[in-house]
Amino acid sequence: MRAPSAVIAVSTCAYLDLPLAAALERIAALDTAAEVRCKGRHGIDTVTQNRAVSACGLRCSVHAPEEIEICSDEPRRRAAAIMAHERLLEASAAAGAEVYVVHPDYSESAIVHRPQTRAALQASFVDLHELQRSYPVRIAVENMPGRRSSHFSAPDLELAGLGLALDVGHAQISGTLDAFLATCEVVHLHLHDNFGIGGPDVHLPLGCGRLAPRRVESLLEGCDGLCVLEHAHEAQVMESLDFLRELASRRFVA
After folding, report:
1. Which partner for 206 in 164, 185, 211, 240 could form a disulfide, CB atoms 3.0-4.6 Å apart?
2. CA 199 to CA 187: how far, in whole Å?
3. Is the distance from CB of 144 to CB of 169 less than 8 angstroms?
4. 141-200 confidence digits (pLDDT tens)
């Protein structure tokens, strides 16, 4: 399913109960692209997983595991994280992925903002950009939901040549959507809805929260990459697809 200037994709996180190949078959039936969420039974680094992605025939991106910590100010831990990303980036390239999405830092409990963590993230972005030179896959850093959870909830870190995976729901919680759009190179979108500034990161279907339809339309029109529906359940994916179809029909009539 396509929206103007955008390619809609679905994250495999809606199908984590299925083997990766079966999850990709379900996504292919929706006529969308796919994002492989490296979690649980889904990944990119085993031979079976890599073949499943290569064989699915879909445009795809890869979302790296959340537990790879590029924010550590301990040199050995940070170096190990970069090495882990290099291994997965190589596998992503072999599978034909277009974008490799990386988390900066994230905590479900309130964090203390530390200059050492900011410096570690900046150094990691530089290292990842060097890796990117060797592979035909764009690395994109994802923004996180709220200043209390991350050092990257607003565009106040230099991405050092990496792209931004703009998580629209996270930016809506942080109140930083316009700031990211004005200052960063957006190469990838994550789409889901929620209740706005300061609210929980509930990944609602589009149209079930406070993200205005006109805002969704403008985001899709401005995106030349994959726009990923990131939901936990297939029923939520279907609601978002219905929302996008209705949005497209209104635009056509208008």
Report:
1. 240
2. 26
3. no
4. 999 999 999 999 999 999 999 999 999 999 999 999 999 999 999 999 999 999 999 999
End-to-end Cα, the chain, rounded Å: 20
Measured distance CA(92)–CA(43) in Å, rounded: 10
Residue identified by tokens 């679905």 is 10
Q: Spell out the long-range contacts of 36-42 with Cβ–Cβ below 8 A and sequence spacing 24 or more.
A: 36/12, 36/60, 36/61, 36/62, 36/63, 36/97, 37/11, 37/12, 37/13, 37/63, 38/62, 38/63, 38/64, 38/65, 38/88, 39/13, 39/65, 39/66, 40/16, 41/16, 42/12, 42/13, 42/16
Domain that holds residue 99: 2-253
Element (H, E) at 72: none
Q: What is the count of structural domains for the chain?
A: 1
Helix axis angle, 47-55 to 75-95, nearest 10°: 40
Q: At what angle do helices 20-29 and 47-55 cross, to 10 degrees?
A: 10
pTM summary value:
0.95
Q: What are phi and psi of 114, to 5 degrees?
A: -125, 135
Phi-psi region of 161 (alpha: psi -120 to 50; beta: other; left: phi over 0): left
Strands (E), 136-199: 138-142, 163-167, 186-191
CATH number at residue 194: 3.20.20.150
